[in-house]
Amino acid sequence: MRPLFTILLSLLFCTSILSQNEIGVGINGGVNIPVGNFHKYYSIGYSGDAQILYNVNNAFILVLTSGYHLWKVDEDAYNKRANELAQNQKYNFDSHFRIVPIYLGIRYFLGRGKHRPFFSLDFGGYAYEFKISGIINSTLPNANTIPINIPETKKTDTQTALAVGFGYFYNLSKNWNVEVHSKYTVLSSGYVINEPDKIVTPDGATTDYGSAKKLNFISISAGINYIF
Which parts of the chain have pLDDT scores under 70? Predict the structure, then answer.
């Protein structure tokens, strides 16, 4: 994914040196709501992003964004599913999925002045990490419990993503503005926890702890930007 990052950075740099238009920086934080397959065993995630803004004209802004996004496994939902499968096992683990993205995007404004709603489109890449460790407590017919250790396991990769959204800029002054933003993001691939019956088979043997899937989520964030 390094060539993609280089291209994104080069595009923003070349655009900025060819014009005297305004450059800005910003930070924001928010929540990421998993949807579809991603929602089944993962809680609402959290994120923080930093961005560089380049004002093309009154209607468009180019934005380079990078950040840190984290989701943790919903242990209660996972154990509920294990009970539905009559596994007689309880899962106590620490598992997460996280990404470090870098996107190049545009903001198309629908208004001018202090109140500036906009549409957004972002494309780029991300590095992800899936991590799991913990203990599976398996209950035998005689009511004895056998702990099965889950050794710390990691999976990492780099992939591409696309996000579309809608947001709002409110100008506090000439240099400062507040941004509120919602996006729908499609990750081309991520590595997430497997179903309980795939982690522990009927004979008690452990199999793969996770699998690669396309993941989608809705993000809601707010932050502040400074325009030089």
Answer: 1-21, 143, 200-207
Domain ranges for the chain, please list them.
2-14+26-227
Backbone angles phi, psi at 172, to 5 degrees: -80, -35
* pLDDT at residue 17 in the model: 47
CATH assignment of 2-14+26-227, among 1.10.10.60, 2.40.160.20, 3.20.20.120, 2.60.120.1440? 2.40.160.20
Q: E strands within the chain? A: 23-35, 45-55, 60-72, 89-109, 115-139, 145-171, 176-193, 210-227
- The amino acid that residue 156 corresponds to is T
Q: What's the one-letter identity of residue 58?
A: N
Question: Which pLDDT value is given to residue 107?
Answer: 96
Beta-bridge mates of residue 165: 120, 183
What pTM value is reported for the model?
Answer: 0.87
- Residue 184: what residue type? Y
Q: How far apart are CA 63 and CA 201, in angstroms?
A: 47
